[in-house]
Amino acid sequence: MSPLELLGASFRAAVAAADPLAVVPGHLPPPPRGRTLVVGAGKAAAAMALAVENHWPAAAPLEGLVITRYRHGLLTNRIQVAEAGHPVPDEAGEAAAREIVRRVRSLGPDDLLLALVSGGGSSLLSLPAEGIPMADLKATTRALLLSGAPIESMNTVRKHLSAVQGGRLAAMCRAPVLALVISDVTGDDPTHIASGPTAPDPTTYRDALEILAAYGVHAPESVRSHLERGARGVIPETPKPGDPALAHARSVVVATAQRSLSAAAQLFRAEGVAAAVLGDSVTGEAAEVAKVYAALARQVRRHGEPFRAPVALVSGGECTVTVRGQGGRGGRCSEFLLSLAIALDGQPDTFAIAADTDGIDGSEDNAGARLAPDSLARARALGLDAKRLLAANDAYGFFAPLGDLVVTGPTRTNVNDYRAILVL
Question: What is the tally of helices (H) and strands (E) in the chain?
């Protein structure tokens, strides 16, 4: 395998380790005495629903509704799949969420609510709290996406603008609740994944207001008024850890970034390349994080420290991009890689890949991109200014003309970003 082929294979190994069709079946419970209702939301929701259908006893009652991103659906028989807007919520998600609430409220103590939760569910399961129009929820979400706020902070706000997230979906259910969760957040805490519709929420309305202020988000009046009323105690808080309202609910995390990174590392080692997993929870501005990883790659290449080449430096997590202008294209993985290219400045024998395991990196149709020692030189030959494109948050405009985008289409899973730097 060539270096770039090896990097591509490592990414596919990471994605395969989080395939819902492989990881969900081993965690399914026995059917209850009554009905089983499957609900869910996220980029992996359709594949998770299909996994349930494939392994649920044919004679046992099974019904449900899950919401996934547009063009992420799959053909199912017993569980309905709806498609809706992501990363900005829309009316399709709102309508599907209302139907999920109706069905959940119909369950009794002998039934089971099986919740399928994955990244992307915060926008897809979009039922705004009373008094907040969908247009205002959209505007707030757009502002948060551009602010550079980490996903945990964004979800703190979204939980407190929702009628179902932050544990509220489980609290309204009379049946036992089992949530199977594919984690796309650092730390793998179910409260942060899809804004935790079945998990207790340790955050508050006051926290949400402070996040808006810290990141300069100017929310519509309905949003700010709702949060301020909550902070004064006029509106009930989300269920907190230890709340009896969630005593009947439990969550099981079935796929994580760490397991995917380990699968990629095993592939490298099988090909005779040492692998160092540098963390599954890397955060920070993508362009700045890349500079740190470039310094590490230079140290390996020049001094054989702290690892000797050949070695793959593997990491995961979720970086952020603070967009300060207009017209940028791409996402955090592509931005990381463009900044890495500039910092490495054509370092020989050094290749890299950065891609989102869900198959979509930010605003375009690519999962991410790949980098070779000659990428900057080829870009200059095409008249591309790497530093200018990075300043404009237009990493897509750098890698697309080079033919170095990683395009997979929807993977229907999501365990966050995957990055590997191969030093030979």
Answer: 16, 12
Residue 394, pLDDT above cutoff 90: yes
Same domain, 308 and 242: no
Looking only at the bridges linking them, the beta strands covering 36-41 and 177-182 are unpaired
262 and 251 in a common domain = no
pLDDT of residue 326: 72
pLDDT in tens, 281-339: 998 999 999 999 999 999 999 999 999 999 999 999 989 888 877 767 889 999 999 99
Residues 232/234/235/240 CA torsion (nearest 10 deg): 60
- For residues 277 and 332, membership in a common domain is answered with yes
The pLDDT of residue 324 is 76
Type of residue numbered 120: G
* CATH code: domain of residue 297: 3.40.1480.10
| Residue 157 belongs to some domain of the structure | no
* pLDDT value for 210: 98
Distance CA 307, CA 339 (A): 22
Q: State the Cα–Cα distance between residues 62 and 81, nearest whole angstrom.
A: 14
Integer Cα distance of 372 and 351 in angstroms:
5
**Is residue 134 one of the residues assigned to a domain?**
no
Q: Is residue 392's pLDDT more than 90?
A: yes
Provide DSSP, 258-275. Answer: HHHHHHHHHHHHHTT-EE
State the average pLDDT over residues 95-120: 98
Listed residue (334, 331, 254, 189) closest to 44, CA to CA: 254
For residue range 329-340, what is the model confidence (pLDDT) as tens digits? 889 999 999 999
List of long-range contacts for 376-384, beta carbons under 8 Å, 24+ apart? 376/341, 376/342, 376/345, 376/346, 377/346, 378/402
CA distances from 358 to 16, 24, 243 (A): 11, 17, 33
Do 344 and 298 touch, CB atoms closer than 8 A? yes
pLDDT of residue 186: 85
**What does the alpha-carbon distance between residue 274 and residue 231 come to, in Å, rounded to a whole number?**
52
3-state secondary structure of 78: coil
Q: Looking at residue 26, what DSSP letter applies?
A: G
Do 351 and 293 share a domain, yes or no? yes
Q: Supply angle C-alpha 162, 168, 169, rounded to 5.
A: 100
| Number of domains forming the structure of the chain | 2
